[in-house]
Amino acid sequence: MARASFTSSTLRRLRQDLLAWYGRSSRDLPWRRTRDPYAILVSEYMLQQTQVKTVLSYYDAFLSRFPTFEALVKAKSDDVRAAWSGLGYYRRARNLQAASRRILVDSGGQIPDSFDTLLDLPGVGPYTAAALASLVHGLPHAAVDGNVERVLSRLVEERRVLSESAPRRRIAALAQELFDPEHPSIWNQAVMELGATVCAPARPRCGECPWKPHCRAHARGNPERLPRTKPDRAVTKVERAVGVFRKNDAVLLVRRSHKTLLDGTWELPGLDVTSPKQSRENLAQHLESWLGRRVTVGSELASIQHALTYRRVLVRAFEANAHPLPRHRQQDRRWVEPSDVSALPTSSMTLKLLAKLKP
Fold first, then answer.
1. Bridge partners of 246?
2. pTM for this one?
3. Does the active-site annotation cover 44?
4. Which helix or strand (DSSP H or E) is residue 350 part of?
5. Peptide bond into 338 cis (omega under 30)
6. Residue 82 needs a FRET pair 20 to 30 A away by CA distance; which of 97, 141, 177, 300 works?
């Protein structure tokens, strides 16, 4: 069983060593250079379930387009989601805009300094609430994400699966015990940085770790075995068939309505198919039912492989035609020129496929 208590001298040494290491080794990230609460809020939403290197390619552009709470709240939701296109987990964009609206209306544009009030914001869970509390207001709340859980599980050699409530509570208590109240805005970043750059899931660089002398997993020679997790969820293979309707240089895109997957993004019209040999037939039936007219499905134009959470998707695009062609309807289907695609919220899967369809 993990030990979640340190002597005062050990605790002091752990804090000193980590902060000294962070001062020498931390990455220069744009959200670490600002004290603007809005910019910090944007970074925390973007970093949910997304790697730093991906967020770096969106963060500055998003802030340039929506530099304040007011600018984001006044923006059209489609414009916000368009700026988010390719970043994934599109509900975060909607939640960020809703949270900004709540902050303006209820708090006069000030991020709440109450942990419970932060938790009540759309899209904010315990980790994000703790991060905002410490980064914006200097409050002593330990933020515990996957990186932190991994670091602390190895530090005290927590052997139980972290999805169980008891070990998760122990790790959360340990995170709070270690928290340095004298450096609240830096501490959470330092522990997360250690997990992100040194205490990696595979091949941890223990020789660079400031906590190496105190790490039980390292002492036993088995850091990579921790934390224990449940077996990975099985990957589902999916095949999707989509139709490419063309009007001169424009293609027809439709708005996706799915509450949990790519909600509100624009894509080529199509469906998931269970029998690849009947893709054309199934696609034609689907498009005819959707449009209420006869549709011809021709040759395959392009295909891509795409990883989407626990799905591995093969998308095949087929030439499609109908007479008359579908009309433009602003809310749910549009004829879009290639140069205008970037103005719409689209998934990286759709962008990848459209790139292969270019003449």
1. 251
2. 0.77
3. yes
4. helix 348-357
5. no
6. 300
CB 83 within 8 A of CB 62: yes
3-state secondary structure of 190: helix
The rounded distance, in Å, linking the Cα atoms of 119 and 114 is 9
Q: Which two tokens stand for residue 89?
A: 């987990």
Instruction: Report yes or no: 223 and 217 within 8 Å, Cβ to Cβ.
Output: yes
- Going residue by residue through the chain, which has 359 residues, state the pLDDT in tens, using 9 for 90 and above: 444 578 999 999 999 999 999 999 999 999 999 999 999 999 999 999 889 999 999 999 999 999 999 999 999 988 998 899 888 888 899 999 999 999 999 999 999 999 999 999 999 999 999 999 999 999 999 999 999 999 999 999 998 888 888 999 999 999 999 999 999 989 999 999 999 999 999 999 999 999 999 999 999 998 999 888 777 678 889 999 999 999 998 999 998 876 555 667 899 999 999 888 899 999 999 999 999 999 999 999 999 999 877 789 999 999 999 999 888 786 788 999 988 888 888 888 898 999 988 76
Tell me: domain 236-357, CATH 3.90.79.10, correct? yes
Q: How far, in Å, CA of 155 to CA of 168, rounded?
A: 14
Nearest CA to 273 out of 326, 324, 313 is that of: 313
Distance of alpha carbon 255 from alpha carbon 253, whole angstroms: 7
Whether the Cβ atoms of residue 147 and residue 196 lie closer than 8 Å to each other: yes
Contact indicator for 226, 153 with CB cutoff of 8 Å:
yes
The number of residues making up the chain comes to 359
Residue 109: phi and psi, rounded to 5, are: 85, 10
d(CA 187, CA 58): 25
The neighbour count for residue 300, using CB atoms within 10 Å, is 14
Q: Are strands 236-244 and 311-322 parallel, antiparallel or unpaired?
A: parallel
CATH number of the domain located at residue range(s) 8-225 in this protein: 1.10.340.30
Check residue 297 and report its DSSP letter: E
Catalytic residue among 44, 149, 157, 158: 44
Cβ neighbours of residue 33 closer than 8 Å, sequence gap 6 or more:
none
Whole-angstrom distance, CA of residue 152 vs CA of residue 25: 19
Q: What does the domain layout of the chain look like in residue ranges? A: 8-225, 236-357
Which tokens belong to 22? 């962070």
